[in-house]
Known about the structure:
The protein is α+β, with helices and mostly antiparallel strands. It has one domain (9-165). It has four helices and seven strands; from the N terminus they run ββββααββαβα. It has a five-stranded antiparallel sheet, covered by helices on one side. The protein is globular and about 50 Å long. The N and C termini lie far apart (75 Å). Mean pLDDT is 75; it is low at 130-175.
Amino acid sequence: MTTPTTPTVTLTKIKYAAFASEETNCFEATVLIDGKPAGTVSNEGRGGCDNFHPRALQQQLNEIAAALPPIDTEYNLKNDAELLIGKLFENYLLEKELKKALKKRILFTKSGGKVYQTKVLSSSAAMSTTRPSSPLAPGTTPSATHSVSTQAACGNSANPATLSSIPKNKPPSGSRRQKRK
């Protein structure tokens, strides 16, 4: 006898407009359920709800989200389509930022879990450094498809470090950026 598994929800063909994001993220994406196109989701970035097309997609995602374990927050939120899509999109943005940081810097953690980064590596130093091949290795191009399982998206696996806590380094003195007169 087989046990029922939670379907995998994936966002693909993600278009993100940071400049248009005010209250919420302005985006559009195709939703795949178990690898099959189920519809599209979008948000205008003005604080409103996500738009699901076809409308039945929202109900289908609500059913999938309801089968997931509850979200561990102080607000006692129940999983629904909005939270599921929001978590998948948040993971997409985090992965994108991480890939960008790994192209020019080395990221590491110390005891306590805080993430640190090196200064920007010169292109010759970055190319001469040997690194293991992985989906997040520098030099790899982000794929057009971003897949995150619904279990990982809802916090049932180790949470990745947030890059917003990484201290930004100042450009070195003698930087090529000069003020225009």
